Amino acid sequence: MTRHMDIPWWRDAVVYEIYVRSFADASGDGVGDLAGIRERLPYLRDLGVDAVWLTPFYPSPMADGGYDVADYRGVDPLFGTLADFDALVADAHALGLRVLVDVVPNHSSSEHPWFQAALRGEGRDRYIFRDRPNNWQSTFSGPAWTQVDDGSWYLHLFAPEQPDFNWRNPEVREEFLDILRFWLDKGVDGFRIDVAMGLFKAEDLPDVRDQSFMSKSPVWGQPEVHDVYRDWRALLDTYPDERMAVGEVWTDTLEDLALYVRPDELHQSFNFAWLQAPWSATAFRKVIDDTVATVPFATWVLSNHDVVRHRTRYGTADPGTGMARARAALLATLALPGSAYLYQGEELGLPEVENLPPEARQDPVFKRSKGELPGRDGCRVPIPWSARGDSYGFSPEGVKPWLPQPDEFAELSVARQTGDPGSMLEFYRRALACRRELARTVPYGLEWLESSEDVLVFARGPLVCAINCGTEPAPLPPHESVLLSSGPVGGSLPPDTAVWLRRAVS
Ligand code: GLC
C-alpha cells in the first residue's frame, strides 16, 4: 500500500496525553517527573502512539496542578530541570515519538513576576484590574474577582492564584510569541493551548445573565482571539517539520469550533462533543456527521485530565459494561478520520477513582466549592506500573504517591496486563498497531453503511467499523475478514462490542 508522504504527520496522529504529576516518579517524592517519563518512553513506543502531550511542568506554586505558571521558560524542580527536558525530547525523537507541550496563555500564576509587579502597582495593564468587579463567576466556583490591598480587583476566570492576562496589551502578545519560540527552538513538535477560547473578554466587561460555559458570551470566544492564532500559525510555519498547535476549545457548537481551525489558524482543536456524547449510536452518529461536515481535520477524544474517565462514564452501575464499552469506543475512535488523543491510563482501563478521601483531594474545584463538587482528582490518580508495592511501581519503593491508589490498581497494572491477550493493554497495542497499518492508506472521508438505529456502521475504503450500542446482537456487515474486535464475535455482533472488518472494494 502506498504511503502518502504529503499528508502532515498530525492529521492521523495518535497523541498520548501525559499528566506529568501522575505518570512516573523517578525522583522519589511521590510526584511524577520528566526523568520518570523518560524511563517509560519505550513503553509508549511499544504501545504504538505517535506523539506525547506533556501537561505543564513549568515552575508553579501548583495551585491548579501546574496550570498556574510562574515562569513560562523553565521546569519546576518538582519535575526536573531544563536539561531533563532536553534529554526527554532527544530520547523521544530517537524513538520516533513527537513531543507537544502545554501553553497556558489565558492566565499566569499569581507568583509570576509580572503579577507580583502588578500588585506593587507596576505594569498593571498586563492583567485585568478594575475599581469594581462585575458579576462573573469563576469556572472553579465563587466570584471571578479578588480584591487587592489598594482596594482594586483583578479578574481570574479560574482560581484566584490564576490572574487573567490582558491580551489587549501588545506586550502580552509579544511575550507569548517569544515563549513559543523558546520551546520551538528546543525542538518541540507543537503545542496544546490551554483554554484557547479564553484570552479576550468583551472590552467593557458587561455583567452576564447566564454564567454557564457559552462560546458566545462576553467571557469567552471574542473575535480578537483569532488574530492571536493567526500570528501563532505564521510563527509555527517558519519552522521546519510541520510544527503544530491543538486548541483546548470548549464551544457550544461545532460551527463555533470550526472558527479556530480555519486554514491560517490552529491545526486542530479537541473535539469535546465526542467525549460528551452518551453511549448511543444516534448520539455518536450526530457528532461524527457534524464533525466531518464542519472541521477540516478532525480529532477524537474520550478522556483527559479534566473529565470523568470514560470507562466509568459509560458504565456507572456495572464496571464490566464500562470496560466493554470502553474497548468498543476505542475501535470507533481509532477508525474515524483524523487524529486521536488518548489519556494516560485509559489503555489500562483505569476507572475514575470516586472514593478518594476528602483530605487527599487537591483539585481547586473541590476546595473552592467546599467539597460540593468532587473535582478532577479521580482521573489523575498515579499510574500503576507493577502489581505490588507502596505505589504499584509509580514511585520508588517506600514512597507514597501524591494521591492514593485503590486496591484494584494491582489487577489493572501494566505488569499484570502485559502479555495477557484478553487485557485492555494488549487490546490497545493490537488496535494501535492495526491502525498504524491502515490510517494513511484508507481514504480520509467516511461512508455510512446500512444498519439498525442502535448500531453504527461506517466504512473508509476497505475498512468497515461496526459498533453495537444496543441491547440485542446485530448482524455483522458483509466482509472478507475480521481485522480486530473488542470482544468475542461469532456470526453476529454482541451488544457493547465493536469490530473492524475488511471488505472487498472494486
Ligand atoms: C484547562 C486545563 C485544566 C485547568 C484549566 C485552567 O481547562 O485543562 O486542567 O484547570 O484549564 O488552566
TrEMBL record:
Residue stretches making up the Glycosyl hydrolase family 13 catalytic domain:
17-380
Q: Which UniProt keywords apply?
A: Hydrolase
InterPro entries reported for this sequence: GH, GH13_cat_dom, O16G_dom_2
Pfam families found in the cross-reference section: Alpha-amylase
Report a single Gene Ontology molecular function. Answer: hydrolase activity
- Family from the record: Belongs to the glycosyl hydrolase 13 family.
By what name is this protein known?
A: Glycoside hydrolase family 13 protein
